[in-house]
Amino acid sequence: MYHINMSVWPYVLVTISLMFLISLYQAYTVTPYKELKRRARSGDELAKALYRVAGYGVSIRYLFLTLIGINTALLFAMLSTATPVWVNVIIMSIILWIGIAWLPSTHVTRLATLIAGKLAPIISKIAAWLHHHQTTPEIPFESGCSPDQRFL
After folding, report:
1. DSSP secondary structure string for all residues of 21-69
2. All residues at 6 or more sequence positions from 41 whose CB lies less than 8 Å from its CB, including other chains
3. Which residues contact 4 (CB under 8 A, 6 or more apart)?
4. How far apart are CA 126 and CA 121, in angstroms?
5. HSE-up of 82 (CA within 13 Å, CB side)?
6. Would the pTM count as exceeding 0.90?
7. Does residue 60 contact residue 28 with C-beta atoms inside 8 Å?
8. pLDDT of residue 23
9. By C-alpha distance, which of 46, 12, 29, 51 is closest to 114?
10. Number of C-beta neighbours around residue 106 at 10 A
11. How many angstroms separate the Cα of 11 from the Cα of each of 64, 65, 120, 130?
12. How far are the Cα atoms of 9, 83, 96, 106 from residue 90, in angstroms, in the given order?
């Protein structure tokens, strides 16, 4: 049957890490890229750190959404072994509502922005690696012209 007397700390840690990832994602994506660039040029050190990470655009979004998805799946798997399905659905609904609906609609806290700034060098290296290994499919362009006539 279900093991209700299991330690609650793994669930709390995974939930906190999920909320932390969502806060970081929000800190890196809430300020427009041009605004970060303007602040970085004016000498704001925190904006410089966030600007380096935000420059990776889609790669940083994929990174955070992948980590958030993995964390959510891990929490769901952990809860499904410890609670009945109906309790699992209720708990996950509440956690996802907080993480997806309520948390992003709030303002980014100064603490989340400071932590994002401190983690920017590490996340920037990961995003650079992902950006370098990201493949884009080549789409053939058929204009009907010969190669010599394309630029005339």
Report:
1. HHHHHHHHHSS-HHHHHHHHHTT-HHHHHHHHHHTTTHHHHHHHHHHHH
2. none
3. 82, 83
4. 9
5. 15
6. no
7. yes
8. 86
9. 46
10. 9
11. 20, 20, 27, 29
12. 19, 11, 10, 23
- Tokens coding 64: 């955070």
What would the two tokens of residue 61 be?
């979004």
Digits of tens for pLDDT over the chain (152 positions)?
555 555 878 888 888 998 889 888 888 888 888 999 999 999 999 999 999 898 888 888 888 989 998 998 898 888 888 888 888 889 888 887 887 777 666 677 788 888 999 999 999 998 888 877 766 555 555 555 555 555 55
CA angle 71, 74, 80 (to 5 degrees): 140
Residue whose pair of structure tokens reads 């609609």 in the numeric block: 105
Placement of tokens 């609904």 in the chain: 93
Are 139 and 55 within 8 A, CB to CB?
Answer: no
Q: Which two tokens stand for residue 23?
A: 């806060």
Confidence (pLDDT) at 40:
92
